[in-house]
Specification:
154 residues; alpha+beta; OB fold (Dihydrolipoamide Acetyltransferase, E2P); two-stranded antiparallel ribbon; 4 helices; 8 strands
Amino acid sequence: TEFLTETRGTGLLHHVFDGYEPWAGELRTRPTGSLVADRRGAVTAYASYNLQQRGTLFVTPTTEVYEGMVVGENSRGDDMDVNPTKEKKLTNMRSSTGDELVRLTPPRALSLEQALEFCREDECAEVTPATVRVRKVVLSAGDRGRQRSRSAAG
């Protein structure tokens, strides 16, 4: 998947089987974290515009999300709980520059293989006939924090 992303789908790859090697240890995981939805609702364009500065999004506006669903890839190494349902505050004041058209970068659609490759040990791929999603195994943010502190202490 990383090869396809780097070459933008134009690379050719060839390989020859060389033989079996002794076990080299655990597989390396991705160096980036996840953007995790902290509440249920529909994704808004206003929230997506603010979140795309934090990383790459997997969801489009109007997509229904739930707590614990991974909505994007964080550019930093740790997971971040975000609110993808945040709406713009409406006021009575008018501004000539206040209501500019929001330009969003297209979200990255994950295939089943990409979703399985994206998953860390605390995440899983959720497959339905309509969509492929990535979510946390423990959905509640409070429970995830307690589990993280318990595993760090013990």
